[in-house]
Amino acid sequence: MKLKIEGMKPIYLQIAEWLETEILNGAIGVNEKIYSQYQLAEMYNINPATAAKGLTILAEANILYKKRGLGMFVSADAAKLILNRRKNDTLKNMVIEVIGEAHRLGINTEELITLIKELTEKGSGLSDVCD
Known about the structure:
- The chain is mostly helical and 131 residues long.
- The chain folds into two domains: 11-76, Arc Repressor Mutant, subunit A (Orthogonal Bundle); 79-130.
- Helices cover 62% and strands 6% of the residues.
- The chain has helices spanning 11-24, 37-44, 48-60, 78-104, 109-122, 126-130; strands spanning 64-67, 71-74.
- The N and C termini lie close together (11 Å).
- Keywords: DNA-binding, Transcription, Transcription regulation.
- One of its GO terms (molecular function) is DNA binding.
């Protein structure tokens, strides 16, 4: 993953989201040890406290759990928790923005659904966002 230093999203959130994606993709499995704050800091040339903040977010969401003296590990429900949050928070907010823009452009619900279906069937641009 490449961090977007100049982006609007804080680095610690980018780290947390990247780790979530790694869990969802199966690159990091259940009960598997996750990178330490120092490993993440070295990988991305960031302050360990920044990396720790990203890990803390995941621990507070019960996606990771701590084993004293051993580090952090992926919880059994991690993928389910991530999917639920992304679906119920992130995806809903994105859909709300799309609906708002469609409304401003005078596109009705049926036209918007047709557009989504067409793009999904063509796979248009999906490889860019699905990687």
